[in-house]
Amino acid sequence: MYSLDKTDTKLLQALSADPRSTFVALADTLRLSRNTVQARMKRLEDSGAFLGFDRRINPAALGYPLTAFIEVHVQQKRLAQIVIDLALIPEIVQAHGMSGPADLLVRVVCTDAADLFRIDGTILACDGVERTETSLAMGEVIPYRLTPLLDRRG
Whole-angstrom Cα distance, residue 26 to residue 16? Predict the structure, then answer.
């Protein structure tokens, strides 16, 4: 990814404020030409600056009102295959490799406690998974955000 300049940062701030803005609207807001906005948006997109749209979809709207975090302890030599196996579980919406006691931190969505129990069992059934520790999210207190970082750059 290339390094953002002030114009890129302002463009991202404007998109953060109104994600449905057209190139023309962004150009008007930022006092840039439409071609400049279009070229910069293309460069930002090509550089990987934008995440997938599905990150904006609320899992509760799909019937998954509960979120849990599962710490997964694995046999290191099987880690690559475990990640492949975990990616096949649709309720796993995110996973991170971790330093510290747990090897993976997996974010799952579920319909209820019984569903969470089933998902945890599916994870435990993966060859090389030694154990899990599950925490149910009680509520999101700080939603995913980048606007403060954009504001700091701007």
Answer: 11
Whole-model pTM? Answer: 0.86
Compute how many other C-beta atoms are within 10 angstroms of the C-beta atom of residue 80. 10
**41 band by pLDDT with thresholds 50, 70 and 90:** very high
Strands of 17-90 (E only): list them: 66-74
Cα separation, 95 vs 99, in Å, equals 13
Token pair, residue 85, equals 């196996």
b/e 21-55 (16+ beta carbons within 10 angstroms → b): bebeebbebbebeeeebeebbeebeeeeeeeeeee
Distance between CA atoms of residues 25 and 147, nearest Å: 20
Which helix (H) or strand (E) covers residue 29, if one does?
A: helix 23-30
